[in-house]
Model the fold of this input.
Amino acid sequence: MSDDAVSPEEVRHVAGLARVDLDDDEVDRFARQFADILEYFETLDEVPEVDREADLTNVMRPDEERDSLDREAALENASKAEDGYFKGPNVS
Amino acid sequence: MTAQTVQQGDLVTVIGLEVHVQLETDTKIFCGCATEQTDEPNENVCPVCLGLPGALPVLNEAAVEAAVKIGKAIDADIPEETRFHRKNYYYPDLPKNFQITQYDEPICADGELEVAVEGERRTVAIERAHLEEDPGSLQHVGGGGGIDSAEYTLVDYNRAGTPLMEIVTAPDFRSPAEVRAFLAELEEVLEYLGVFDAERDGSLRIDANLSIIPEEEIDGDDTDEIGMDALEAANRTEVKNISSHKGAEKALAYEETRQKNAIQRGRAVEQETRHWDESRGITVSMRSKEEEKDYRYFEEADLPPLRVSGWKDEISIPELPSARRERFQAEYGLSEEAASKLTSTKQVADFYEDVAGEFDPDLAATWVADNLLGELNYRDMEITDIAGRLEEVSRLVELVAEDEITAKNARETVLRSMLDDGAAPDEIVEQEGLGKTGEDEVQQAVVEAIDENPDAVDDYESGDDGAINFLVGQVMQKTGGSADPGDVNQLLRAELE
Done:
């Protein structure tokens, strides 16, 4: 697969959806990396057909309450918290 | 035809809805956290609904049962197999950066709901209804509190993972009033099914698509009869942030006028998403969000597919409001209006049937539909607020049915005092001395009134029939209002013969 299988425009679009800022160098680098990744997936086409495991269906649990996390623990990994809330930047 | 030549009368409004309803379960859709409302943020959260790495969702059986009930009620197909997808978008109300929802294999497809609009029956097609999880809630803090000017965002994930059903209609509505009637009917149906609580904050959220097309493109009210090309060609706006049927009617009436005005002035209607600002009563343009393809839907591999079409036969649903309305008219001889009031919620209808079974159906209708619902409504209360006291209301109707107190006293004194002071009917009757006065006592008051008011007696005897009313008033006063005025009138006339 050639390098231009993923265009810089597509990279910018995906970065925009993921709310990630990329500079031009990074866009080029990611375009190449995306192309490489897609190529890895093509490798899967070479995998021979095998029987897959029997399908699971209807895996459900009863509507019974289980303990939630302590709020302290829930917020422990947050970089910022305030009054029991997770705190983040303006998201307009 | 150019836009400039279009007259208002040539235009027809076409509306379709996406209605999100919160399903009444004890726990969230993919984890065992409580769905109960709490004042404290981030109390009902766990690794699953916080999207912590490695956490696995497990589907709540009760949410699936609720979905199947809804499917039965709207006469939808429950496909042999149905599955979940990930809808990807990055916003802090979604801790996983994707929402688990259903995409091309929803649990309900091709349903319908019949609704009466201004006396006319309309069938609204429901294209699909699917299960999904609710996101968390955001607070935009500082800088005046608006989304754009806020300094920072506070996030509460208590709501994240609450089970929702998204119900998508065909573009079958022709007016905001029809939308309102449909939403009211849908709410009634969902409450009858016991899967929905209208009182809960945010339990109903509506997105509506509205476009205006030339009238000649429509031959009838069915979607099939719309020129779909015309609908495609017309720009539509999606109005978000509607949270009640009244709000829906207002928001869509505003949007209808806004679009018609634009067309009349020869301006194009932009295809866009608009936000209903309830306090200002207007819709405002929102910055456009992702297109459908940008959500990059793919199968949720952590949730195996569902095969629950057989549940349709196993799960039973109660008689639905429209069927019950018709039966009330036929069985109890009620007017359409009374039947409609008495079936407005399942609790009201059940209570009416209890009372009508014991006493006269007409008396029961007056008491439940007019007196009880009227007094509750006046106090901003619902029948559910007095769920534990319905026997007392029955007892009050019994007192009236057995002629122990007058209907007027029962309604104006006893019922009001029951609701305001929480007392039981017999207590109030006792305290206020409302028990109908014994015959001897009334007879004695009649004799006294005649003795004490010779002038009125003279007037009556000389042909002034109105004078009897004065004497009735005197007797009523002596008996503290507990005598029956009609009886008193007769007793007076008999005594004066």
Remarks:
- Chain B has three domains: 8-312, 321-432, 439-496.
- The CA atoms of residues 82 and 105 of chain B lie 5 Å apart.
- The two ends of chain B are 86 Å apart (CA to CA).
- The longest helix of chain B spans residues 245-264.
